[in-house]
């Protein structure tokens, strides 16, 4: 099991949090998602077939790209 924390500058309201939670939770292999409106940080716990690259790609697709 892996855990990553990503900074997503585009988070601005609870709708953003909801969208990110829902989309990431739908990815196969993602076990938990914790997104914070205050810090704009998203912590994702996952196992294969999910990966950091796939998670980052999904965030780009839904217009919430994570900082490098
Ligand atoms: Cu928002």
TrEMBL record:
InterPro entries: Cu-bd (IPR000428), Heavy-metal-associated_CS (IPR017969), HMA_dom (IPR006121), HMA_dom_sf (IPR036163). Gene3D superfamilies: 3.30.70.100. GO terms for molecular function: copper ion binding. The keyword Zinc-finger does not apply. Residues 2-67 form the HMA domain. Pfam families: HMA. One of its GO terms (biological process) is copper ion transport. Keywords: Metal-binding. This is Heavy metal transporter.
